[in-house]
Amino acid sequence: MQAVTWLKTTARFTNPVIAGLWFVVDRSRKRAGAPTVWAAVKECLDKLRDDVFPAETEFEYEHRVTLFRLERRWKWRLPPKRIRVLVPILRSGFTTQIASTVYSVDTEEKCEGVVGRTIASNKVVIINNLDDVGPNSDPEQIKKYARVTNVSEPHLMDWMNRHERRLPLSFCGMPLEVKNSPWGVVLLDSREPQAVSVKKRKLYELAGWLVGTLIERGGS
Amino acid sequence: MSDWVRIEPDDIDQPNVERLGHVEITMLMSPYDVPRAVKGEYSRDIKKFVIELRYQTDETITSGDAEFAGISLWLGRSSGRIHRIDVDVDKLNVSSVGLRIGIEKALSAALDQLKHRPRYLNRVQNYDAALSAILRNEQRVFAELPA
């Protein structure tokens, strides 16, 4: 009874707060998309990984398929600026789920990474036979790897030191459209030097189309 | 009623390979920009020769934004990709003997002009692919026109 009385007396404050919370939760739910759809997208990434890369792999992280979404984020500097970035949101496998590297794609000249190059050029980008680079590699090799993959040397060094791993030897970035507008990139990376091939073009295209269609029908 | 002509992506999009030492960088067109099928037929209702292109995904198309001498291009509303080309054969003012060549020239000129519009700069590869898809299959696309 006391609770009802309290609600009545505070309605003018609590009602807008409840409405605001409802709005935020509803927007978040719509943005997140249906969980079943994301489960299906994850299965697509896993299937693509299994079909493209060899089965005899010791570690999952040696062959990965990652889904990046194009987002707008604030860059906190003076003056603050909104930039376009590619954010990893889903990845194949079970032990490779933690992905945190965000790539800027502000302009075509300033795009970062193979994913940035993919979305800026609106083309499928395949890179094979990269140098086998690790934390103790020759600085010239690291410099060349950074140039080819469109990332800075400090970024590469930071990544290798954090993960204590050697870098991928091949990449394939595929642009992804949802509702006929750029949405993101599907990126394949592997420790095999020639893991991705133009000959498998139809398979990449099919997987990209399926992922895009699933997201369009029920994702965000 | 003419049939759709199926297009293989490998036929109209050759991989662009760049080598930096032993590193190999290959660029392919976005699969969304590659036409998957093409057909051409004369429409008696509008008295124009109509070429249609199909893609991996469907889209609402609009006309009126890209009108050139005798050529109307119907573009995807979001993407700007070419979905339909209306050719006003009478306006082209070419003899029936050189009709196909006349259409091809007018179409190339129209696409060249479209490519230079800032809004469509990122669709240049689609315009090249559309033209290539039509020219590679001209016998079947222009089957209803005099040779």
Write the layout of secondary structure elements.
The complex is a heterodimer of chains A (about 220) and B (about 150).
Chain A: H1 2-9, H2 11-32, H3 35-52, E1 63-75, E2 81-91, E3 103-104, H4 113-121, E4 123-128, H5 139-149, H6 153-163, E5 170-178, E6 181-190, H7 201-218
Antiparallel strand pairs in A: 1-2, 1-6, 2-3, 4-5, 5-6
Helix pairs in contact in A: 3-7
Chain B: E1 5-6, H1 9-12, E2 16-20, E3 23-29, E4 37-43, E5 48-54, E6 61-68, E7 71-76, E8 82-87, H2 89-92, H3 99-115, H4 124-136, H5 138-141
Antiparallel strand pairs in B: 1-4, 2-3, 4-5, 5-8, 6-7, 7-8
Helix pairs in contact in B: 3-4
Task: Please provide a written account of the structure.
The complex is a heterodimer of chains A (220) and B (147). With 220 residues, chain A is an alpha+beta fold. Chain A has two domains: 1-32; 33-130 and 168-218, 2-Layer Sandwich (Beta-Lactamase), CATH 3.30.450. Chain A has helices at 2-9, 11-32, 35-52, 113-121, 139-149, 153-163, 201-218, and strands at 63-75, 81-91, 103-104, 123-128, 170-178, 181-190. In chain A, strands 3-2-1-6-5-4 form a six-stranded antiparallel β-sheet, with helices on both faces. The mean pLDDT of chain A is 84. By secondary structure, chain B is an alpha+beta fold. Chain B has one domain (5-141). Chain B has five helices and eight strands, in the order βαβββββββαααα. In chain B, a hairpin with a 4-residue loop joins β4 (37-43) and β5 (48-54). Chain B is globular. The relative contact order of chain B is 0.19. The chains are: A alpha+beta (220), B alpha+beta (147). At the A-B interface, β4, β5 and α7 of A face β3 of B.
